[in-house]
Amino acid sequence: MNDSWEKEREYLEKVVSYIEHRSRELAEIPRYYGKDIVEQILDDQRQERLARLRLSSPEPYFGRLDFQEESAESSVPLYIGKVGIQDEDADQLIVVDWRAPVASMFYSFSGHGDFASYESPDGEISGTVYLKRNIAIRNQQIQRIVNSFVRGTDHLGVTDEFLLYRLGENKDNRLRDIVSTIQHEQDRIIRAHKDQALLIQGVPGSGKTTVALHRLAYLLYQYQDKLKAEKIVIFAPNQMFLDYISDVLPELGVGGVQQTTFASWALDLLQEKVQIQDSNQRQVTWFERDQQTPQEDISISKMKGSLSFLVFLQQAFDQYEKNFIPKKDFVPWDGIVLTAKEIRYWFEVEYKHDPFLKRVERITARIKRWIEIEHSSYRQMDPKGTWKKKANQRLRAYMKTWPLFTTHQLYIHLCSTSPQSSLDQPLYSMIQQSMKQKQLHYEDIAPLLYLHLRLHGVKNSERFDHVVIDEAQDVSPFQIAILKEYCPSQSFTILGDLMQNIFSYQGIEHWNDFSIIFDQDQWDYIQLHQSYRSTMEIINFSNEIIKSYLGELTPAQPVFRSGELIRLIQQENSLDQTLLSSIQYVQQQGSHTIAIITRTEQKATEIHRSLQALGLSIHLITPEQKEYRGGISVIPIYLTKGMEFDAVLLIDIDETNYPEQPLLAKLLYVGCTRALHQLFIFYKGKLSPLLSKIPKSLYVTTLP
User: Fold this and answer.
1) What is the pTM of this model?
2) Residues 130 and 78 sit within 8 Å (Cβ to Cβ)
3) Is 205 assigned to a binding site?
4) Any idea which fold 187-276+466-531 has?
5) Which residue among 95, 537, 575, 680 is least packed, with the fewest CB closer than 10 Å?
């Protein structure tokens, strides 16, 4: 191995030398600010090459694959990196982009079988792999070399050694790329064809979000002529989550992708000042009120997010459209008539492919042209244009009989006046009653956007090439159906975990609620069972919490990364001092990101205040937060989804805060699975029944 280290150092020095040399050359070329289009393009290309070189400089590559094609005389070492690097002087590819077809073998080849192959633009290329090597580089220095396969030896099956090395690293305040440790099942998702709706059901820590972001980088590389970054969108649950994942795409050399929430995107499209109840406040109300949320509130919310409500609005709008043109003829002046039948023919037949308001606009313009044509025959009889003025006055009066509404007004009108058809009658009555209060909620956004779409249509500039939806278990079928209208190619990556559906007033219970929205030949469903986040102790403990509620789902399967047992502590002394000493302990063990997870925002605020008074530097995370700053945080449990911390301290896990309910089992499961290395659970009085039956072999009851 010493010989390998020396040879790898020499190659690294060669690559680094070229990167620095070429970067200097490109940086020294003056920028072009003139009007010549060709020169502008050349300048942009130089800047892109310079950006790629700078991105690759600290860690030019992470793997090596020695591959011999069937028709070749010898094997060729292929170094795999985040970006491809071409030595333009020697006309030699010195680093292969991880997204290139040949690089797929680095992720798919396991060492079993005599041959390996990959799909190239010219067809399948087969050959023999002689070496598969992982190389950890930091700041242009080799840190670790692991051979996962060497042909002709029994050196096989140690891939996990490098994976465990990377998984054991502590985290900072951002999600990071995983190009050096992409697993085969993840690579299959990343390289899946673009024109399909791909749904990924993944356990906590399976890398759903990271895989989706790497899939975007792959698609933009593989389909450069068909996909544009600015026509791709990522929908995330909140702004803090977007901040948390914000570094991954730039690390992969991708910029320009839209990243937003469904509400922000939809309200921007509506272009109306619509007052929506704060969804953050909705979360607080849902999770923190003393009594249970009334069942009718949950039922109304679920109904408004359903496909049944979409069908109801479709039928209601169709009826509104059918009755829109008045039955009365238009008479500009005595003796001349434009029949209502003719106007309706224009509206329903000639302009039927236009959006509703575009049809109204075209009909109005056509009637005005008709008036001009008719008046031209009577001009001698009306030299002062009196008839024409009267005709225009009558047209304005005629148009006032057309029932035009804003999107918001139309929504209230249709829900308040349309006869019930496909909806549950008691629920429909409650919806009508809520409409009279004119108070809109988060679940009203998708219906509003549907009506906006029927009124205005979809502009080409509003269409997407690809849509990513994270935490999709909290998204309604109505929202998915709307998004499909804005992405007609049905190119979707949808990620979620039904065991983390903690917002029962929205979202879904089964993935079939989504699959029926898409063409079945463009739909694919993949489950990710392997969890790479937490130690096996944390995963085994967490699985016990929800094993009674899994149904057809498979529990998380840990990689063999062992750590401390969970500490289940009955609180006797001051909680503040106990937390302080526990934080000091996990910091001594190497933890950088630490979360104190509470049941409510009120409790989080109290803990934050008291620990700050003890001199601890700690961040309070609330629903309004837009940035995650790492370090030590105190956070309500319902805000932790999608996040991960080196160490987690869960407090107040007693029978009062966590009685035996499916929703609370999921909530507690979410909290426990945020921890990478260490999990402390504190309770006072009687332990939550959700934990009381967990085998005692999975935890200890003492502090360190």
Assistant:
1) 0.90
2) no
3) yes
4) Rossmann fold (3.40.50)
5) 575
